[in-house]
């Protein structure tokens, strides 16, 4: 199965979702699910994320953590960077403890466990937030050209692009651990993430992104853009990986 590219321009404020390139849609809310193949409480949340992945106005992403691997099953999608991102979210919220499953809505609100009604309420709240950013994107042969317009009366904040490569769907036969014997289906599985500062000050920025990650040359690639605010936690600066 090919890996799809999801390039999210995440600024302070909100923007728009473009799938495919050039087509405008409602600004999406980013939902990050921290999960693990070795967590017996996670399958219901994994199922909820699968539903959100098909929902208009939502960017649903699964980040698999590695701290359940000691039980006997090493999560095939887990990366230390995703575990670090969850810990960083906890520290930002004043906590040193992390849980699975945990959803982070819009980079701000945390939902631990399987609580679909709470998630629905937060999606509505974030989706109704004002939109001070207008974004557009054009695909090039080797990346993306973006335009970000700050529409609010206040000074434009520092702007950062998050690039995320994700796998749309995968079935996994889990042989050991708490979910031994389960054939699990996972959706929008993040495989790589990167932060890309694009500047501050001007009310209009026109960055050119030329990333070296994820799905270049593969089929089933898409691009989504949102101006919603997310912290650059756990991602790699492109200067550190030659991107």
Automatic annotation (TrEMBL):
SUPFAM superfamilies: Thioredoxin-like (SSF52833). It comes from the Bacteria. Pfam families: DUF1223. This is DUF1223 domain-containing protein.
């Amino acid at each position: 199965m090919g890996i799809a590219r999801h390039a999210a321009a995440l600024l302070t404020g909100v923007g728009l979702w473009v799938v495919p390139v050039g087509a405008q849609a409602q600004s999406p809310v980013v939902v990050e699910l921290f999960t693990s193949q070795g967590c017996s409480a996670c399958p219901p949340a994994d199922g909820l994320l699968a539903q959100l992945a098909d929902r208009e106005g939502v960017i649903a992403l699964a980040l698999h953590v590695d701290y359940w691997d000691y039980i006997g099953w090493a999560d095939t999608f887990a990366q230390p960077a995703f575990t670090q991102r969850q810990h960083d979210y906890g520290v930002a919220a004043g906590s040193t403890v992390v849980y699975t499953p945990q959803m982070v809505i819009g980079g701000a609100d945390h939902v631990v466990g399987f609580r679909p009604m709470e998630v629905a309420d937060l999606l509505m709240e974030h989706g109704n937030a004002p939109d001070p950013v207008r974004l557009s994107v054009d695909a090039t042969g080797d990346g993306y050209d973006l335009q970000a317009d700050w529409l609010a009366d206040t000074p434009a904040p520092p702007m950062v692009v998050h690039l995320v490569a994700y796998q749309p769907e995968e079935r996994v036969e889990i042989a050991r651990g708490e979910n031994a014997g389960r054939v699990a289906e996972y959706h929008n599985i993040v495989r790589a993430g990167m932060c890309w500062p694009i500047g501050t000050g001007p009310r209009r920025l026109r960055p050119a992104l030329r990333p070296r990650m994820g799905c270049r040359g593969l089929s089933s690639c898409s691009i989504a853009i949102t101006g919603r605010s997310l912290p650059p936690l756990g991602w790699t600066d492109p200067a550190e990986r030659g991107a």
